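Our consortium's second objective concerns turning raw sequence data into structural hypotheses that experimental partners can test. To show how far this objective has progressed, the report includes one record in full. It was chosen at random from the queue rather than selected for favorable results. The single chain below, 278 residues long, was entered without modification.
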Amino acid sequence: MVIQINKLTKKYGDLTAVDNLDLHIRKKEVFALLGPNGAGKTTTIRMLTMLTIPTGGKALINAQDVTSNKVKKEIGVVPQHMNLDLELTAWENLELHGRLHNMPRDKLKARINELLTFVEINPRAFELASNFSGGMKRRLMIARALMHYPSILFLDEPTAGLDPQTRRKIWDLIRRLNAAGLTVLMTTHYIEEAQILCHRVGIMDKGRLIALGTPQELMEKVGEVVVEFFGGTDTGYKFFARRQQALEYVSHLKGDFLVREVNLEDVFVEITGRKVGD
């Protein structure tokens, strides 16, 4: 396991943001933490990336405690909010990061070229980051996080605020990174993102891990098909193990309804009674 989390806890006064979290993440896995705002996802990421000190419990990254400076060389971090230096060019942003990690000068130039090509912004390498679109800035942040050859990449809401086309470009980038052997731990509010990209998913609510498994395993727990029926201002849901059962049910149903396959958002709603973005 590249990440081992045991009874990890973070409290802010009387508020418990993360509550005795147990979680192990495997090498070369793409893993997503899902949950509503305030569920503890970002706080968990902050503890694993040495930005927040745990109140209790333990977390290891490649057998190193997350309170040790040795962890820094193992991890690359792409935060939710844009934090590039907009007064520097794309090249300069990467060069600065490499120098902060004491990368040898003879390897620095080659690594910058390699990553700018990989994220497809090499033609604009010497342009100020302030001129980039949201998607280009996000790709540059990913390139920056990879400069020092980390073994684990943390992505906190990597496609938040991006248009659907740009979002899919980021998905392709994540797939290529994982295919090259990188372990990825991400948070997202986009259910489709987790369902398409991730080997396993953990659902958090109120600081606790309440469900864990592959997307398929989690969906099978609630059923294969869901019927949404609409009455007044409320939407009702009923889950069925088989489509034929759902069709028999709606044959006697009056009003508007929709029969569709179960997705991860249905799993979350069924478990917590809330939608992921609530």
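The partners drew two points from this record. The longest strand covers residues 15-25. The chain has a mean pLDDT of 92. Both points have been shared with the crystallography group to help prioritize constructs.
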